[in-house]
Amino acid sequence: MRARDLVVEYQSVSVDSDALEAARLMAEHKLPALLVLDERGEPKAILPASQMVKALVPAYVVEDPTLAAVVDEQHADRLCQALAGLRVGDCLSSTAPAPPIADPDDTALEVAALMARVRSPLVAVATKDKDGTHLLGVVTASHLLHELLGKAGVTGEPTA
């Protein structure tokens, strides 16, 4: 099984996309992360849902978590307003690494190793040539597990 065979349709956003809309997309589809594309449509970063949540939390609460206990519910309910007017690019960490990219001919094990090495819930699958990177799609950790378990003959309901 090759990376091209593992590709699934997956939501992506651009660095210029509205951050609040991106958060809604994550919430609506229960996505662990979004693939962020640059201005040319090439993979730029992975935006984990945890990073989006961090963008909602005031910096002083991140620095001193005990302050979270004194924020009233009415104020907490307005946390999402912190995303108003922001772009997805504003929510990316300044140290966000480039997204992991697999070649379409990579094996499932190569994709799994890449995913494990960079601890990413998804890997972009793309071809690269002199004109740039051409995205074919994404391999998610959950889909990769599903395929690997199926190939290994592991079936049935989980016991735990």
Description of the molecule:
The protein is α/β, with parallel strands linked by helices and 160 residues long. The protein is built from 8 helices and 6 strands; from the N terminus they run H-E-H-E-E-H-H-H-H-E-H-E-E-H. It has helices at 3-6, 19-29, 49-56, 59-63, 73-76, 88-91, 108-118, 141-151, and strands at 12-14, 33-37, 43-48, 101-102, 122-129, 132-140. The chain has a 3-stranded mixed β-sheet with strand order 1-2-3. Strands 4-5-6 form a 3-stranded mixed β-sheet. Strand 2 (33-37) and strand 3 (43-48) form a beta hairpin. The protein is globular and about 50 Å long. The model has no long low-confidence stretch (mean pLDDT 86).
Q: Hey, roughly how much beta strand do the residues contain?
A: 15-25%
Compute the CA-based radius of gyration. 18 Å
Q: What is the overall silhouette? A: globular
User: Helix proportion of residues, in percent?
Assistant: 25-40%
* Count of beta strands: 6
Structural class: alpha/beta
**Through-space gap between termini:** 29 Å
Major sheet attributes: 3 strands, mixed
* Count of individual helical segments: 8
Strand/helix succession: HEHEEHHHHEHEEH
Please outline the helices and strands.
Layout (H helix, E strand, L loop, with lengths): L2 H4 L5 E3 L4 H11 L3 E5 L5 E6 H8 L2 H5 L9 H4 L11 H4 L9 E2 L5 H11 L3 E8 L2 E9 H11 L9
Parallel strand pairs: 1-2, 4-5
Antiparallel strand pairs: 2-3, 5-6
Q: Could you name the key traits of this structure?
A:
single chain; alpha/beta; three-stranded mixed sheet; 8 helices
